[in-house]
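To: structure subgroup
Subject: Chain for Friday's discussion

All,

I'm putting the inputs and outputs inline so they're searchable in the archive.
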Amino acid sequence: MGDLAEEEQQLPLVGSLSSPDASEESIERTGTIWTAVAHIITGVIGAGVLSLAWSTAQLGWIAGPLCILAFAGVTVVSSTLLADCHRYPDSEFGHIRSRSYTQAVKFYLGEKSKRICAVLAQESLWGTGITYTITTATSIRAIQKSNCYHRKGHDAPCAYGITKYMLLYGAVEIVVSQIPDLHNMEWLSVIAAIMSFTYSFIGFGLGLATVIENGMIKGSLTGVPAANTADKLWLAFQALGDIAFAYPYAIILLEIQDTLKSPPPENKTMKKASMLAIFITTFFYLCCGCFGYAAFGNDTPGNLLTGFGFYEPYWLVDLANACIVLHLVGGYQIYCQPVYAFFERWFTQTYPNSLFVTRFFTFKLPSLPPLKVNLFRICFRTAYVVSTTAVAIVFPYFNQVLGVLGALNFWPLAIYFPVEMYFVQRKVSPWTRKWIVLRTFSIICLFVTIIGLIGSIEGLLSAKFG
């Protein structure tokens, strides 16, 4: 039996301007370019990759691949601008680390912008948790259906619900959510990144094999035909929202960058990691999107690996979906840890004398490192996971939810705030060449966000009430 020790410990007030580096000595930063790449790939290659074949089908052979490449380019620009904003120049303290996205917005753009950003950021991260819950449950169900189709034939009525799988996934995430922070998640990100490579490669391989078996490349330059022009536009707009969801990771970039050791400077390491990770993900995105569309044409499913364009070999379909499940267990935590850190810091600063918030219990087991347990952490993180699971049960619509979340958060979080912070950080004067280029870039991305959001909301409402 282990013994339980009690200790009173206040969580560090990270991010306070009066003591910006109060907890620097207590944090051992050991991250490298490879751990950063693992974190990024875990966060980026997720539910979004599975919808890219469908998105390509809606846009056609010209616009589909071009949009994937365009969003890759936008993500490169966004991540480069944001990486330079990790350290904020301060006259009193030299350089202050921005250990979270919202903290960086506060330092550069002020309290009002920080509050707006905080709402959008928490909504984005919370929404990603919902999407990952839907995707994981759908993949578990797909394994059952794949085995059923293999035994009974492809026309068999193999119908299974997904609510119980969402509840199961939520229970697993409640346990995994007790990992303290990103500094303790390198091993989980590495496993998740390997899983993402595996199922992406399987999706690409199955698509290529189907194209070879068909003896032709399906699809057209304009994509899947629709009953009328309005319907075609709605679907194209939703496809843009889906692609927007698949790429940007600005909201977790600074948290990842804060795990990196220096020298070399963290921003240089982060830029290299971002370029490498985006190159890798874009390769898989194009392979899955293009070969999926080439294999199925107008019948391309919304989810490449769970929509049952592929039936055989059933064991390979099962393996791909199992990898999705394992990956999204880690991916969920990559997107939840910033939320946990934000609220736990706020409660610690607001209620510094509350034992419920600040007291830790250390549970010691033989041959294992001590396990520190905090009651507030257990309660808050459990409630958070329950909330994402509950909403996923109510709105289990994969493509539509992806589109809404991607379009809603793409411009403000991936474009607007990074550009505005970069202006302040580099003291870019209005109407200079750099200012005009970046401002035009921001306006174009705003337009894309608006049309993507309109189409995705229409698709979600049609799926729910149509």
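Points worth raising on Friday:
Strands lie at 3-8, 87-90, 94-97, 359-364, 371-374.
The chain is about 70% helix and 5% strand.

D.
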